[in-house]
Amino acid sequence: MTALEFEIIGEGTLVSVEVTHMYNAGYAGRDQAAVKHHIDELAELGVPAPTTTPSLYPVSSYLARQSDRVEAQHERTSGEAEWGIVIVGPGEDDVLLTVACDHTDRALEVHGVAWSKNAGPDMLGRRAWRLSSLAGRADDLRLRAWVGAERTLIQDGRVGELLSPQYWLEVLAERGERQEGVALISGTIPMIAGVDQFSDRWEVELLDESTGESSVVRYDVDRMPTPIG
C-alpha cells in the first residue's frame, strides 16, 4: 500500500489515503473507432491487441506515487498524460480527481501491455478536486504534457476525449470495488507526431481554464546503473 496526501482545490484542506488497489484504464478514448485505428498502429510496432476495449489493468498498489523522480532500467520508457480518480471515503464527495502520468516500459509493452503497466510507477499530482465540486465541467478540463528541460509539448487535449470518471466509477461499482483506497488512472490522449517521448523529464498538467486552478506532476527520469550479471 502507498500513502498519498492531496491538497483539495477550493478548500485548501489536506486529505490522506492509503491506496489499497490501483487500476490503469487502457484504450479508453470515447471515439472507439479512433481507438481501433490506434490499436492497428500499435500492432505494426509489435504491441499485442487487447481482447476487449476499453481495457482495465490491475497494477500493484505500491506503484501509486507522488514523487519528482522515476528510476528506469533502460532508455525506452515514457509517460502518458492522464487523469486519476482516488476514492478517499464512502460518500459522493469522497472521489478526488487529479492529474496522473503512467510511466510505461515500452520495450516490455510489446510482450504484454499488462506487464508493462506493472513495470513503472503511476505518478499522481499533489492537488486534487472533489469530483462533485466540478459541477459537470470535468470534461472541459485541459490535459497537457511536456517533455525535456525545454518543455516541448507532446500531448494536448481534454478530459472529454476519454471515457469519463463517472464511467469508471460505475465499472468499479459493478465489480464491487468502489471503495476507499481504490485509485484508477484514465488511459491517455494522442501524442503529437514527431516529438520524442523517450525523455529524461516529464510534466503533465490538468487545468481548469475557467478558474485557473491546476494540478501538475513533474518528474525526472533517472537511468539505473548497469547491472552485473
TrEMBL record:
Domain of life: Bacteria
InterPro entries in alphabetical order: DUF2848 (IPR021269)
Entry-linked Pfam families: DUF2848 (PF11010)
Name the record gives this protein: DUF2848 domain-containing protein
Organism: Microbacterium phycohabitans
